[in-house]
Amino acid sequence: QHAPNTADNKQAIVHLFEWRWADIAAECETFLGPYGFGGVQVSPPNENRVIAIPYRPWWERYQPISYHLNTRSGNDEDFRDMVHRCNQQGVRIYADVVINHMCGFGGSGHGTGGSYFNAENLDFPAVPYGSNDFNNCSTCGTSDCKVQSYDDVNQIRNCRLVSMLDLNHSSDYVRGKIADYMNYLTSIGVAGFRVDAAKHMWPGDLAAIFGRLSDLNTAYFPSGSRPFIAMEVIDLGGVISSSEYIHMGRITEFRYGKQIGQIFRKQYGQTLAYLQYIGENWDKESDNNVLVFVDNHDTQRSHGAGGESILTFRDSKLYKMANAFMLAFPYGFVRMMSSYYWDQWWELQSWGLKDSNDWIGPPADGSGNTMGVSINNKGNCRNGWICEHRWRQNRNMVMFRNVAAGHGMFNWWDNGYHQIAFSRGDRAFIAINNEGLWALDATLQTGLSSGDYCDVISGDLSNGGCTGKTITVGGDGRTHIYIAGDDEVPMIAIHAGSKV
Ligand code: ARE
Ligand code: CA
Predict the structure, then answer these.
(1) What is the per-residue pLDDT across 117-159, written as a single tens digit (0 to 9) for each?
(2) 269 pLDDT band (50/70/90 cuts)?
(3) Is-contact 423 448, C-beta < 8 A?
(4) What is the ipTM score, two decimals?
(5) 472: phi then psi, degrees, rounded to nearest 5
(6) How confident is the model at residue 283 (pLDDT cuts 50, 70, 90)?
(7) Which residues contact 486 (CB under 8 A, 6 or more apart)?
């Protein structure tokens, strides 16, 4: 379904990419709950192939070996503990489910949970799946069984995505195994799924699998609640359209992050003024059908789509501005990215520059065990974890979005170029200045009731005072906004919950 099953109608989630379950549980209790986050997308919880060359890349988790919950993030017990503790805080867990395929062809060994597999014979006894459960080269039709052309629907769906053994979802048995796995997750208390590589599965097969899903666990959700579904369909035009999937749930709207990146980077003559029309009024799927994000774990390392336009933590100023816009504007269900750091190594390939370190896995010890997230007394993450979601500007805009929920966009203002402002009914107001040189200096309608408001970009409301700028709104709802062009983070955001 399209509704995310968040508690208290909360409006945004965060992808804690590669985090351990124990760390996520603690984060729900100490941070995500108190700051109004609706949920967490977690890395695939099921057992995966252990890749040694390169050494323990992040992408090994997209190569399933079984549906046992045993990975570098933790085991079954850790996962259950996390789901329970997060739900107790009103923070939902969304599992990334890799159901299009098993691991890459060739070789044999043991997965992260110790299960044996043979990827030469297509044997995964811990499920069990055998060679009959996979698409064969004749249903696919290419010489090496791999997807070779993204112009051929049959290849995309029946061939191996970068060599990974492609499950035959027309089989009742395969559908049953996948549904059992997903039902096991919801029985624990998971609220929904990010469905990996949905583009590579036939919509009819997915509908049959989703039709077998149980209602959510009534210990945490009203009876009859259905799992939230967000399908990974990269649709930048091409033979497969996101519209084939939206009757079943939301799709990941990749055009959004690409366009947001282009606009904030001022590429191709684009300006912030255009943002007024972003969403269904432009070329995208409608509000209720999309999951939106500035970057994700693929696009931040050029694996998915969007190329060099994508904004990430490496461009922190623009990234904060893009996230703030996304969280302020009423379009889509919002997902924030939370990353770990790696050193890039750019090398020239025939098609252009490539980061040859894009495979590097999460911070780990010498034996490849993922390291815990440590947090200093200022609330910032250390030892390689970036924690964009903890940056004040990002974190406070989550509350802005919650406070503004249900209110449309009003009082749009722009200078024709890179300065914009708008309100969300009488609940919230934001102004962004991406001119660089020129100040934003204008008297604007905020839609808010008169009073003093704490700007949640430059500070926090604390003990009735504001640690940042205070903005005074007059009886007519107007205020004078001044944002210097070279401000550290050139934005102002105030809302009904930030009244001093
Ligand atoms: C790895 C190695 C391969 C090796 C393979 C098997 O990199 O060289 O052959 O293992 O041994 C991730 C990584 C892959 C990795 C894989 C498995 O990105 O590099 O392969 O894990 O370990 C397409 C798909 C889309 C997919 C993107 C990345 O349509 O579904 O490619 N995204 C998801 C995940 C990824 C994950 C997988 C799927 C696989 O988010 O993290 O892969 O489970 C156009 C098309 C898009 C296409 C895009 C990029 O825009 O329209 O459809 O996306 O190009 O090719
Ligand atoms: Ca497939």
Answers:
(1) 999 999 999 999 999 999 999 999 999 999 999 999 999 999 9
(2) very high
(3) yes
(4) 0.98
(5) -100, 120
(6) confident
(7) 436
Looking at the CA of 197, name the nearest ligand: 1
pLDDT 10s digits, 17-50: 999 999 999 999 999 999 999 999 999 999 999 9
Helix (H) or strand (E) holding 471: strand 470-473
Clarify whether 196 is annotated catalytic. yes
C-alpha torsion sign, points 316, 322, 327, 331: negative
3-class DSSP assignment, residue 264: helix
Q: Give φ, ψ of 128 to 5 degrees.
A: -90, 145
What single string gives the DSSP state of each residue in 36-101?
A: T--EEEE---S-BBPPTTTTS-GGGGGSBS-SSS-BTTB-HHHHHHHHHHHHHTT-EEEEEE--SE
**Cα of 57 from ligand 1 centre, angstroms:** 13
Task: Retrieve residue 458's tokens.
Answer: 């430059």
User: Model's pTM, two decimal places?
Assistant: 0.97
Determine which residue's CA is closest to atom 51 belonging to ligand 1.
Answer: 234
**Catalytic pick from 60, 232, 253, 295?**
232
Tell me if residue 232 is catalytic: yes
Convert 14-32 to b/e letters by CB count within 10 Å (16 or more is b).
Answer: bbbbbbbbbbbbbbbeebb
Which pair of structure tokens corresponds to residue 57?
Answer: 């890349």
What DSSP element (H or E) covers 393? helix 392-404
pLDDT at 302: 83
Our mutation pick for probing the ligand 1 site, out of 152, 298, 351, 354, counting the most ligand atoms within 8 A of Cβ, is: 298
Q: Whose CA is nearest to atom 14 of ligand 1?
A: 59
Tokens standing for 101? 């395929």
pLDDT of residue 388: 98
The per-residue pLDDT for range 182-237, each reduced to its tens digit, is 999 999 999 999 999 999 999 999 999 999 999 999 999 999 999 999 999 999 99
Q: Of 309, 302, 371, which is closest to residue 340 (Cα–Cα)?
A: 371
Residue nearest to atom 45 of ligand 1 (CA): 234
The Cα–Cα gap between 273 and 415 comes to 7
Q: Dihedral, CA atoms, 276, 277, 278, 281, nearest 10 degrees?
A: 150
How far apart CA 452 and CA 430 sit, in angstroms, is 15
From 108, 195, 303, the mutation candidate for ligand 1 (largest count of ligand atoms within 8 A of CB) is 303
At 240, is the secondary structure helix, strand, or coil? coil
Query: Pairing mode, if any, of strands 164-166 and 101-104?
Result: antiparallel
* Closest residue CA from atom 6 of ligand 1: 104
Tokens representing residue 356 in the block:
């040859």
